[in-house]
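User: Can you recover a sequence for this backbone? Please restate the input before giving your answer.

Assistant: Of course. Working from this structure:
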């Protein structure tokens, strides 16, 4: 059975692989789907296009459907997330200058990985006492695991969000912002941390796996009204993505995936930047052996209805991070989370 043209949005990140590989290797076509992938330049643009129907589905940050349903930063819009496509994949990169300050202020000969944020404390205090500006840190979107992971990393080191200035920058612009000395550090998804290391402008000090470990990262986002109109069509999309994730779970396939993702049409980024995280390596700094992190990028295609309890618990944790970040004032009822996840649909 063929389908009408379907527009699926994505951001140029390694964890868009389930969509890009499904298109390139024919998993969508095998399911009778005519899919056009639409690269977006910011998470806000992707969200807005999904909300108004310009996109039929999208590669979304795990907290985004919750934020959409609650009307955080947008009109309340029922977006469901019936499939978790990936886990982990983010990291925190600090500028060379900031790492030099960390070494000097803490009397270190070198830093170790993963790095504790407590080593920022003397720098923050020194800047405060001398009247200098706060450290400038960045993440990708207000309602993102990146933001909550950055806050958690700081909090674990005794640093409060008020001690630093935090900005939103689109993923592909992070390295340029650091190169221009606009920011001192950022939390972003691969491959942009590796790009900073390859360019010699930053050092990746910790990953999201170090901070949380196997948290949901990207989901397949769909307008609930659109899903309800043609559930069979979206089940075919979900099935094709699941098959793609099984292919991606085989490590030797990851190099082929990196070759495809690096193409101009997709990430438009050199293979040596795209490949490391897909192959279970975290580049930390130039001329240094990478950290071995087999779970850096996990593509699991976690079906909400087959793993309902554990996934709902993950989303309960996400909304607790939203509470901690003062983005919401009350817990989201479990029944509402089940609706967002389209559980038992």
């Amino acid at each position: 059975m063929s389908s009408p043209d379907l527009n699926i949005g994505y951001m140029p990140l390694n964890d868009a692989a389930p969509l890009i590989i499904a298109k390139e290797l024919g998993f969508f076509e095998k399911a009778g789907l005519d899919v056009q992938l639409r690269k977006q330049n910011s998470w806000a643009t992707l969200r807005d296009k999904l909300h108004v129907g310009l996109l039929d589905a999208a590669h979304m940050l795990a907290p985004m459907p919750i934020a959409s349903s609650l009307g955080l930063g947008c009109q309340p819009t029922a977006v469901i997330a019936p499939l978790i496509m990936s886990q982990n994949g983010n990291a925190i990169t600090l500028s060379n200058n900031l790492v030099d300050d960390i070494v000097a202020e803490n009397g270190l000969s070198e830093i170790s990985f993963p790095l504790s944020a407590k080593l920022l404390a003397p720098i923050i205090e020194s800047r405060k006492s001398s009247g200098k500006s706060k450290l400038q840190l960045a993440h990708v979107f207000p309602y993102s695991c990146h933001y909550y992971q950055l806050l958690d990393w700081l909090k674990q080191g005794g640093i409060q969000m008020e001690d630093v200035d935090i900005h939103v920058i689109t993923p592909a612009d992070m390295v340029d912002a650091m190169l221009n000395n606009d920011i001192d550090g950022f939390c972003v998804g691969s491959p942009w941390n590796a790009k900073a290391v390859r360019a010699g402008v930053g050092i990746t000090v910790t990953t999201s796996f170090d901070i949380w470990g196997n948290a949901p990262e990207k989901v397949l986002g769909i307008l609930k009204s659109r899903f309800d109109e043609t559930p069979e069509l979206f089940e075919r999309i979900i099935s094709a993505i699941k098959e793609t994730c099984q292919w991606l779970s085989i490590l030797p396939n990851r190099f082929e995936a990196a070759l495809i993702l690096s193409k101009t049409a997709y990430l438009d980024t050199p293979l040596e930047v795209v490949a490391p995280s897909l192959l279970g390596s975290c580049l930390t700094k130039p001329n240094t052996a990478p950290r071995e992190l087999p779970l850096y990028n996990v593509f699991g295609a976690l079906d909400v209805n087959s793993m309902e309890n554990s996934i709902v618990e993950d989303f309960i944790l996400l909304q607790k991070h939203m509470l901690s970040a003062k983005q919401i004032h009350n817990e989201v009822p479990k029944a509402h989370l089940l609706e967002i996840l389209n559980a038992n649909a």
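That completes the design. DSSP finds 16 helices and 14 strands in the chain.
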